[in-house]
Amino acid sequence: MSLALRLLGTSASRPTVERNVASLAVVREGETFLFDCGEGTQRQMMRYGVSFGLSDIFFTHFHADHVIGVIGLMRTMALQGRTERLRLWGPRGAARMLKRAEEFGMDRLSFPVDVVELEAGAAVTRTDYAIVPFDVDHRGSRSLGYALVEQDRKGRFNPDLARELGIPEGPLWGEIHRGRAVTLADGRVIEPSVLVGAPRPGRKLVLTGDTRPCPATVDAARGADILVHEATFGDEEAVRAVETGHSTAREAATVAAGAGVGMLVLVHFSARYSRDASDLGREAREVFERTVVGKDGMEIDVPYRDVAG
Ligand SMILES: [Zn+2]
Ligand SMILES: [Zn+2]
């Protein structure tokens, strides 16, 4: 089951020559989600090969650099003749804000748009994963971070031992693997724990949107494979980060260290770092070594922990 994220925009507030404004695509086994949709996101999607055939866009908050791209993206989807429903998710206020986006422009859209307002903790649950919103701390605005959390997978089945025990290969193996005890023709009862290992953890991917470093992110990101955290400023602008409700790279790293994540990905850089964000990387790595400085188009694979090589 593949899981990868693709950074579509890593600039804060406004686009620069090098970076577009906020958006991130997650592709899980052919299913695409978008998180935030700043101006120009549709062109970034084309550039980096992200499918327009997506069904869900999640918004962290409604500052312009995270949302106005959805107007153009929906127009293009309509031009392409889309008829499938599009679901837009966001914090309270989403309905008012996104209805306007839907109505902006002369023509009606060719497809239905659902807008769903989310509260922290109200997970969007799908077959084998959930997307769990959590409150972040961004200038008093209603802002959410999101955790994509996969369910644990079944433990490994031991075929050699099954043969040794004389359990015929076939439906019985499946039964046992699904956690059911089976009775063999000779009356023996085989408990699944004999043949099936412990459940194996799914993956967890967490992104913050705009925020000060906050305990809610540490909680949500505990044990995550990847944390995508905003890092608008460097140490030299630490005061400004407080004033504007953003984080420094070092603060993002402190959150990553507190949560014990596998990897920290920094995004949402102030224009002054657009060309060269290496100082941000250096400052973050002083606190948390496994830090990557994001850039537009960067693709990051998320392997299962038990098969990572
Ligand atoms: Zn922003
Ligand atoms: Zn913001």
Describe this structure as you would to a colleague.
With 309 residues, the chain is of the alpha/beta class. 26% of the residues lie in helices and 24% in strands. The chain has 11 helices and 16 strands. The strands form 3 sheets. A 7-stranded mixed sheet has the order 6-5-4-3-2-1-16. A 7-stranded mixed sheet has the order 7-8-9-12-13-14-15. A two-stranded antiparallel ribbon has the order 10-11. Helix 10 packs parallel to helix 11. The chain is globular, with a radius of gyration of 22 Å. The two termini are 16 Å apart. The mean pLDDT is 95. One zinc ion (ZN) binds next to helix 2.
- What hetero molecules are bound to the protein chains? zinc ion
Uncertain parts: none
Biggest sheet record: 7 strands, mixed
Tell me the radius of gyration.
22 Å
> Helical proportion?
25-40%
Question: How do the helices and strands line up, and which of them pair or pack?
Answer:
Layout: E1 3-9, E2 23-28, E3 31-37, H1 41-47, E4 56-58, H2 64-67, H3 69-79, E5 86-90, H4 94-103, E6 113-117, E7 124-125, E8 129-135, E9 144-150, H5 159-164, H6 171-177, E10 182-183, E11 189-190, H7 192-195, E12 204-207, H8 215-220, E13 226-230, H9 238-244, H10 249-259, E14 263-267, H11 278-285, E15 291-293, E16 299-301
Helix pairs in contact: 10-11
This protein binds zinc ion (ZN) (2 copies).
Residues 61, 63, 138, 210 line the site of one zinc ion.
Question: Which terms would index this structure?
Answer:
7-stranded mixed sheet, alpha/beta, 11 helices, binds zinc ion, 24% strand, 16 strands, 309 residues
